Each structure stands twice: as structure tokens, then as C-alpha cells.
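Minutes, project check-in

Agenda point 3 was the complex the collaborators sent over. CS summarized: two entities, 227 residues total, and the question is how they sit relative to each other. Sequences were read into the notes so everyone works from the same version.
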Amino acid sequence: AQSVSQHNHHVILSEAASLELGCNYSYGGTVNLFWYVQYPGQHLQLLLKYFSGDPLVKGIKGFEAEFIKSKFSFNLRKPSVQWSDTAEYFCAVSPTGANNLFFGTGTRLTVIP
Amino acid sequence: NAGVTQTPKFRILKIGQSMTLQCTQDMNHNYMYWYRQDPGMGLKLIYYSVGAGITDKGEVPNGYNVSRSTTEDFPLRLELAAPSQTSVYFCASTHRTSGILEQFFGPGTRLTVL
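CS then shared the predicted structure for the full assembly.
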């Protein structure tokens, strides 16, 4: 079955630590890729997106993600996290031609001051 | 623009009651979606619409109904509430061009069925 996998369910980091959250998908064709963030008690907001071109995309708040087609991955990174990055992070995939997004189960990030 | 708005923010229902979750967007988006979010499960698509008068089932449609009479509104109806429908419900919208589906989300409705 086609799916989006986020293997890290809960990540705990100290401030200034580096972050990498994994996202793998199983769709074989062309895809659009997204990372959304959900701060506590809030709705989902777009962090960054990849449609085509440079596989390294930069988003808001210092986040970036790299699309590695051969690995079907779109991992999210940030060199130095802050307490305000505490949130849940969702990877989402839209195969070309699809009418909707397919979401991973999310990764909860807790940043300790 | 207000973006995507949802009402109510919170609701408690008794088993068997019915209710409608409202969703409105003012961005002239043609596509609209309803998701439910359960802890550790991510977002599951309930229903979606690609335009006024057109709706389609998502991954978890049982127990829900939708309608799309206007571009702006996409209400979600629960006819006979069950405890399994306790969840947070998010509405989203997008304007599809060239297959790009960046979705904009509403603030959510937290529903508890007792």
C-alpha cells in the first residue's frame, strides 16, 4: 500500500542541538512533498514544500529539507533548535495527479531549554 | 482574508446526537477537505470536494456526510455520534493548479462524544 512513514514518534532535544526528522514515502511516480508544523493547540502550518528543481529546499524559521529521490526520502533538518520549535511535525506527499495529500503519523519534538 | 474558519471550536455530544461542523474559506479555493486527527495517528482524510456540487470519500468516511453547495462552504455532518468519533477535526482548502496541492488549514474543532 502507498504510505508515508515518519519513524521518529517523539524526539527530545536540548536547545541548540541539531535536528533531523525522517520521512519516507512509497509512491513510485512524481510527487510533491511538504512538511507541516503544528504548534501546541494550533492548526497545521506549512513549513516548506518541494515541487521540482533544487532538491534542497529552505523553509521558514531556519528549517530545510532534502529530497533524495533514490531513497524516497524527504528529511527535515534544522542546525540549531530553539525551545519555540516544540511542536508536532508532519510530512505529507501528493503524487502527481492526486486530489489530496497523504500524511505521515507525525513526529512530536520537545525542545528542553 | 480570514483564510479557513471553522465553528464550533469545541463541542461535547451524547451518543446518538447529530451535529454539523462548519467550514468556510474566503480564498476562492476550489478544493476543500475534512480530516480527523487522533493522537499518534496523524491526519486521516474523511471527505473532500473538488468543486461546488462534487464530493468524494476519503480514507475514513463512515459515519459522516458532506455537501458542497457553494465554493466557500464545506460542512461536515455527523448523523449518529459515536465515541469513536471523538477527535479533532480540521478543514483545509487549496487551489489546485498544475497538480500543486499546498493546503491551508482551519483552527480545528475538538469534538468529544460521551
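Noted in discussion: Residues 36 and 89 of chain B are 4 Å apart (CA to CA).
Follow-up: revisit at the next meeting once the mutant set is ready.
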